[in-house]
Amino acid sequence: MPNLTATMTGSWLIDPYVASIIRMNVESGVSGDAPRMWTAANREAVKLPKAVAVLPLTGIMEPRASEYTYYFGGTSTEDYGQAFDRAMNDPAVKAVLLDIYSPGGMVYGTPELARKIFNARGSKPIVAIANPMAASAALWAGTAADRFYITPSGEAGSHGVYQTHMDYSKAMEEDGIKATFISAGKYKVEGNPYEPASQEFLDNAQADVEETMGEFTSALARNRGKSSSYVMENFGQGRLLSAKKAVEVGLADGVMTFEQVVSRLLSGHIRTGQAASADDLTTPVQDEFHERRFGNVGDLQRKLAIARR
Asked: CATH number for the 4-164+199-303 domain, one of 3.40.50.300, 2.60.120.330, 3.90.226.10, 3.40.50.150?
């Protein structure tokens, strides 16, 4: 199989625990028939009654589908942006719901997708839900919607950026292996895994991480109407927050199930734009309304077209 480990370089917007699981699976040799982490969670984009477009964002986020998507399941931010554009430009679609279950992913493509979502605010309601997780890159994109909710058992956060340098030089020395690079360009082979990292390389990597972190922080502050200093202090400092805590600090707008968000969106209990102050998050939506629109839970699941890829 392809050496995926070699591609886990550069800055990442992903939950470190999930990244470690992926790395361990890669380094131990994932077989072609190994179960993919997010396969069962993948959903096809569908249009619910009353023309609410549901756009699932699952797994590792990267600009284009790659080996990660194949082995672990994931979302191309480029493809997702195109699906979002289609939903926003479709006159039959009255609202868009971003259904998120993702640990985050690559920096590449994430700011562009989030900016696209944020810039579309006001044209039609855009609502996102961490169902059950929106971490790092997924948080960046999800909070760009008009409203951001979390399922009761869900989590959101992992506000941070990191890089990893793997140094195999000692292990190679013990095995009697030495790598020799023939290169041109002062920094062409810096940070390679066969030599200890130089301080100059580490300083440059840290500067790159800090730059992305600044952009991430500014975007969260804009998305959630907070100051950058407030975001740095209260949005978890790299940790995931429980649904209750996320709402408490203003990272999310409320705690609801996916079905509750859909029902409230269709019934007008969730408003966006200038009418957002009139959101009704407490008045119960009548069961008969839910049944009339969706039928029983089994019917709703079929309408969502949950599919194994």
From this structure: 3.90.226.10
d(CA 84, CA 230): 30
Ranges under pLDDT 50 in the chain:
1-7, 31-41, 274, 277, 284-309
Residue ranges with strand state E in 72-164: 74-76, 95-106, 126-135, 147-150, 155-157
The Cβ of residue 18 has, within 10 Å, a number of other Cβ atoms equal to: 21
DSSP summary character for residue 199 = H
**8: CB partners within 8 A, 6+ apart:** 19, 22, 23, 26, 164
Q: In this predicted model, what pLDDT tens digit does every residue of 87-134 receive, in sequence order? A: 999 998 889 999 999 999 999 999 999 999 999 999 999 999 999 999
Give the Cα separation of 22 and 60 in Å (integer). Answer: 10
Cβ atoms 294, 54 nearer than 8 A: no
| CB distance 137 to 110 below 8 Å | yes
Taking the domains of the chain in order of start, what are their residue ranges? 4-164+199-303
